[in-house]
Give the backbone structure.
Amino acid sequence: MVTEKQLLDPRNWVNAHADYLYSYTLSRLNDEEQAKDLVQETFLAALEKVNRFEGKSTERTWLTAILKNKIIDVYRKKSSGLANISEKKAEEEQKDFFEEDTGHWTEAHQPLPFGIEDHEPLRGKEFNHILQLCMQKLPVLWKSVFTMKHMDDAATEFICSELRVTQANFWVIIHRAKLSLRACLQKNWI
């Protein structure tokens, strides 16, 4: 049987994982200095927790999990103190965008076609660059919620718990973030 110490190689972490972890962080925070700091903090935290590594995942997966928690802490700090949106106001705003009986977009708020359906722009560097610029325009809480939901595939309950928002508030934030991103992409990408 392989021991825990044989599974981890802390002396090789920087060479093996730093670029990946930095890139992962930068795509979520878009702040180079903060990304560097979080990667360093991740390595330090991992060294402190090396005896807790159970070997059930790869070294990179384990380091990424530690990093994800650090990123969530940043989201939480940035979004703390922001006022919650009332549920009643949220419900009223939803009525403006969707048909009451079907739940489909109203004609006035229906998304415009991007005109890029025939190829794969989501994989293109230019699209990703525009998307990152558009995401930077989002309020901090919106960006945090959107990133956790759509980039990290976090569960709604987890996001609400970590960022201390109600589920109704969460859905309004997601909706507003999508509308804002859609408008920004339509303006800057199409």
Remarks:
- The chain has nine helices and no strands.
- The first helix runs from residue 4 to 7.
- Residues 1-6 have pLDDT under 50 and may be disordered.
